[in-house]
Design goal:
With 279 residues, the chain is an alpha/beta fold. The chain has a single domain, classed as Alpha/Beta hydrolase fold, catalytic domain (Rossmann fold), CATH 3.40.50. The chain has 10 helices and 9 strands. Helix 7 links the parallel strand 7 and strand 8. Helix 5 crosses helix 6. The protein is globular.
């Protein structure tokens, strides 16, 4: 019986790893994708003593910036629908960074989780790549939404608009999944993609982090759009209600409920998102 346990563990880890790989877009797949197109992203690496920020950029750096902030687990390529839109290239400088702990970005290499405030500070460095001198539009989804909101709260003079899709922002309604714990199992960490380990650590700290930044919601005064889908199985509807309750029904707020949409609104309703970027 004692020999069966390690064998069973290996089978579980192999199965778990193969399941998660379905959600990973590899570098080879990204290169293959852009080999078929007439344009390619321009990659930038910004480094400091204890951080590395990896950003894919599209469009001229003299155009107004749009900053995209992905969820968990994810990477910059999660906004492909928008980043590949050449009509957006002609009007904006699109900046999509890997959040620290995902892809090629990090804050202190061994940190699996980086708090919301520090992530906001690091992602804001991507604006240094833009030379337009104009305010940026923040486009975020899921776990990226509270980071974008914190950026809008701390430096409202830098941003003209905040867009949050399927925002995970209510500390009392954090949804946990059976696989959420896998990234915390020491043995499984050897087999899981790095981004899933980061997502697990982030998941278990998210409630505390959201409570810490809770005072920001009523203080955000820039034009803000909040979108939520009626078929979202990742973020609960209470998060949409939280935004309405905390941010209020002021003139700068727009709430959009899409009954047929799931969690990936940026893909399923790309035209709607584009409308709110270009307006």
């Amino acid at each position: 019986m004692k020999f069966l346990k390690p064998v069973l563990l290996l089978l579980i880890t192999a199965f778990t790893s193969s399941c998660f790989q379905r959600y990973i877009v590899t570098e080879k797949e990204i290169r293959r994708h852009y080999d078929t197109l007439s344009f390619k992203p321009v990659y930038h690496v910004q480094k400091g003593k204890d951080f590395r920020l990896y950003t894919a950029a599209f469009g001229a750096d003299t155009l107004p910036p749009v900053v995209f902030i992905h969820g968990a687990p994810g990477r910059w390529e999660g906004f492909t629908k928008q980043l590949d839109d050449t009509t957006l290239h002609s009007r904006f400088h699109l900046l999509a960074s890997d959040r620290p702990g995902y892809g090629f970005s990090y804050y202190r290499k061994k940190h699996r989780r980086v708090d919301i405030e520090k992530q906001a500070e690091l992602i804001e460095k991507s604006l240094e790549l833009n030379r337009s001198g104009q305010k940026a539009i923040l486009v975020s989804r899921s776990y990226g939404a509270p980071i974008a909101a914190y950026m809008a709260y701390t430096h409202p003079e830098k941003y003209s608009r905040l867009i949050m899709m399927a925002p995970a922002i209510d500390p009392d309604n954090e949804k946990f999944f059976k696989f959420s714990k896998y990234g915390k199992w020491p043995v499984l960490r050897w087999f899981l993609p790095k981004r899933f380990m980061t997502a697990s650590f982030e998941k278990y700290a998210h409630i505390e982090e959201l409570r810490r930044i809770e005072p920001i919601w009523g203080a955000i005064k820039i034009p803000t759009v909040v979108m939520y889908g009626g078929r979202d199985w990742v973020v609960t509807p209470e998060n949409f209600e939280f935004a309405q309750r905390k941010m209020g029904d002021h003139g700068h707020m727009t709430y959009i409920f899409i009954p047929e949409a799931g969690h990936r609104i940026s893909r399923s309703h790309a035209d709607l998102l584009k409308k709110h970027i270009v307006q």
